[in-house]
Design goal:
The chain is of the alpha/beta class and about 220 residues long. Helix 3 runs antiparallel to helix 4 (about 140-150). It has helices at about 10-15, 50-55, 95-115, 140-150, 205, and strands at about 5, 25-40, 60-70, 75-80, 120-125, 175-180, 195-200, 215. The protein has two domains: about 5-20 and about 70-215, Rossmann fold (3-Layer(aba) Sandwich), CATH 3.40.50; about 25-70, no CATH class.
C-alpha cells in the first residue's frame, strides 16, 4: 500500500464540511432539519413534529417529516495523464520524475485516509491509466479497496488520453486533484469549479513533520 502521512490540521480544516461536498440533506426521510413533507399524526410523535398551522381547522393532527442528513463527500483525482518521461523537473531537484509520481500517489492516499476518518464518503478517479473510477462510499473496507487500487498502479504502462469529463455534475462532491509535477485546472471540466489542485511537490508542506509515514490504512 502507498505511504499514508498525517496531514496538517489547517489542511484538514480546508476540507471539512461546508463546501460543495459538505454535509447536506438527502431527499430521504430522516431526522434532519430540512422539511421533507407531512403525514398523519401517529401516537408517539414528538410535539415538535406537529404542524399546528397546517392542522388548524382539521379533525386530525398532522406531523412534519424531516430529511435525512447525508455525510460530506469528496472525490480525489490522481492526474497521471502526463507520461513519466514528460514530467517537468529541475536538474537540481532532489526528486526524479518517478519520485514525483510516487509522492503524488502518497498524497492521494493521505487525503483519502484523512477525509474518511472525518466521516466523508470518498471516491477515487485515476486519469491516464485504465482504472475505473470508484463510487463515493465510506468505511474501512472501501478505503482498503482504494489503497489497493493505488498500490496496483503500473506507472510503466503507456498513458491513456483523458476521456469524458471525469466528474459528473450530479455527484455534488468536493474535489481535490493531485498532479505529479504541475497543476492543470482544465482537466476536470465544468464540474471542477472550486476544486483544489495540489502537486507532489507540496507533500512536505502538507504533512505533520513529526508524524512518520505509514503504509496502508490506519486501524
Amino acid at each position: 500500500y502507498p505511504q499514508v502521512h498525517t496531514l496538517r490540521p489547517e489542511f484538514l480544516r480546508a476540507i471539512t464540511p461546508g463546501g460543495p461536498g459538505g454535509m447536506r440533506s438527502s431527499r430521504r426521510l430522516g431526522h434532519g432539519e430540512d422539511y421533507f413533507g407531512t403525514r398523519e399524526y401517529r401516537p408517539g410523535d414528538s410535539v415538535r413534529q406537529i404542524a399546528w398551522k397546517r392542522g388548524a381547522g382539521l379533525d386530525e393532527l398532522v406531523s412534519i417529516e424531516r430529511t435525512q442528513p447525508s455525510p460530506p463527500r469528496l472525490r480525489v483525482i490522481l492526474n497521471l495523464l502526463r507520461p513519466t518521461a514528460d514530467l517537468r523537473t529541475d536538474p537540481h531537484e532532489r526528486f526524479s520524475p518517478r519520485d514525483l509520481e510516487e509522492r503524488a500517489i502518497s498524497l492521494v492516499a493521505s487525503v483519502l485516509a484523512a477525509a474518511e476518518s472525518q466521516g466523508y464518503e470518498v471516491g477515487l478517479t485515476v486519469l491516464g491509466l485504465d482504472v475505473p473510477p470508484s463510487p463515493l462510499r465510506r468505511g474501512y473496507r472501501h478505503l482498503q479497496r482504494l489503497m489497493a487500487a493505488l498500490a496496483g498502479l503500473d506507472l510503466g504502462r503507456p498513458r491513456l488520453p483523458r476521456g469524458d469529463d471525469p466528474v459528473a455534475d450530479a455527484e455534488r462532491a468536493g474535489l481535490i486533484v493531485v498532479s505529479a509535477d504541475r497543476a492543470d485546472p482544465g482537466i476536470v471540466g465544468p464540474a471542477g469549479t472550486g476544486s483544489l489542485h495540489l502537486t507532489a511537490r507540496q507533500l512536505d508542506d502538507l504533512v505533520v513533520d513529526s508524524a512518520p509515514a505509514r503504509e496502508g490504512v490506519p486501524t
